[in-house]
Amino acid sequence: MDKFVHKGPQGPAVSGLHASPAPSGPPRPPTPQHETTNGASISAAMEVTGSQLLFSQLAESPGLGVQLSDAMAAGPSVGGLPAHPDLQALAAALVSLITPTIQKTLENTIRDTLTQIRTDLGAQEGRIGEMEHRIVALEDENSGLATKLRQMDTDLCYVSGKLEDLENRSRRSNLRLVGVTESLLPADLQDFCKSDLPKALGLPHKCRVERAHRIGKLPDRNVASKAGVDSHPRQVIFKLLDYNDKVSILRAFRKRTTPLTFRNKKMLIFEDFSADVAKRRKAFSNVCTALYNAKRRFQLQYPATLKVHMPDGSFRSYQTPSAAEAELRDVLADHQRHPRHSPARQDPSRDQGPLAQRPARRKEGRDRSPAEGRKRKKSPKRRSRSRSSRSSSPD
C-alpha cells in the first residue's frame, strides 16, 4: 500500500494516477475577459478549474488518494475504468468534495463578467443619452430655421413681385415697333415715331416722344450681306411722354383692317413688358394665333391672362396656356381643319401711305460722289449769274 503513496515537499501525492504535482495554495479562477465572455470561454474555465480542484482535493485528503489507488490496482478494468465495487461511492464522495468549490469559482467568474458588462452598458447609456439631448437640440434649432426660411421665402416672393411690378410700371409708356427696316437711321427714329407713325394711324395730332432707339445686337455684316440687311431688322422701342398717346396708338393700330407697312415691310406694334412677363405672355402665342384665325375675340390682359369672348356674350379667363388649350380644344381643332389664309401681300406700287412716302435719309459725305458735290456747289453760282443777266437785260 505504501508503494502507491509517497509524500513530497507539499504533502502526500498519488503515484498511480500519473498526474503532475498539485499546485500549491488555493485554486485560482481563470482571468475573465474585458469586454465579452461567451459559452466556450466559460466551458474552458470550468474544465481547467475542475482539474485543478481535483488535484488539490487529492493533495489535501491522503486517504482519498489511497482508496483510489487500491481501486485502480484491484482487478481488470472495464471500459478504461477500474471494476471496483466501491468506485461509485468513491466518485460520489469526490463529486461532493469538488462541487462546492467549482460552484463558488464559477459564481465569482460570472459575477465579475456581469459587473464588467453592467459598467459597459452604463457607459453606453450615458453616451446615448448625450446623443439624444444633442438630437433634440438640433431638431429645435432646425424647426426655428425652417420657420425663418419659410418667412424669408414669402418675403422674397413679395419683394420679387413688387420689383417686377415697378419695372413694368416704368415701362408703362413704352411701345415696341417690329419690322422697321434698318435703312431708317437712328437720328430719324424719334421724328418717325413722333409724326409719321401717328399720321399713318390716322391720329389728328403728333405724339410727344422722349426717346427712341433700337434694341438687340447688331446683325453680322457677312450674314446681312447674304440674307439682306432688312431680312431681320432690330426692334425699335420708344417712350412717350403722355400715356394717353400710347393708348391712342394701340387703339388705332388694333382697329386697322389692313396691315401697317413701312417701305414695303409689314410693321407691328406691341407693348413693352419685363422679361418675365414677356415670357409668360409669349406662351399664349399659339392659342392667340388659333383664336385670331378662328375669328374669336380675345384679349391678353396684364400680366398674362387670356380673356376670350364667347358667342353667347360671356367671357372666360385663363391663367395658363394648357388650361386654355384644354377648354378651347374644339376651336383649335376647327382651325386646324379649316385654316384661315393670311391676306395677300399688298402691291408695293400701290402703297401710297405716309410711311411709304418717307424717303431714306442719306448720310452726307458717304454715299455722294465727288462729281455730285462739285455740281451742287456750282449750281447756285449759275443761278445767280442768270438772275443777274435777266435783271441787266432791257425790257
Question: Can you offer a commentary on this structure?
Answer:
- The chain is of the alpha+beta class and 395 residues long.
- The chain has helices spanning 39-60, 62-73, 87-170, 189-200, 221-227, 243-255, 275-282, 285-293, 321-327, 329-337, 354-357, 370-392, and strands spanning 5-8, 11-14, 77-78, 81-82, 174-178, 209-215, 235-240, 260-262, 265-271, 298-301, 305-309, 315-318.
- Strand 10 (298-301) and strand 11 form a beta hairpin.
- The termini are far apart.
Strand percent estimate: 5-15%
Number of helices: 12
Shape: rod-shaped
Overall number of strands: 12
Helical amount among residues, as a percent range?
A: 40-55%
Query: Could you give a short account of the major beta sheet?
Result: 5 strands, antiparallel
> Any idea how many domains?
3
N- to C-terminal distance: 193 Å
- One letter per element, helices H and strands E, the order comes to EEHHEEHEHEHEHEEHHEEEHHHH
> What structural category arises from helix and sheet content?
alpha+beta
- Strands of the widest sheet, in order across it, are 6-7-5-9-8
Mean pLDDT: 74
Low-pLDDT parts are 1-26, 29-42, 341-352, 362-395
Backbone CA Rg:
57 Å
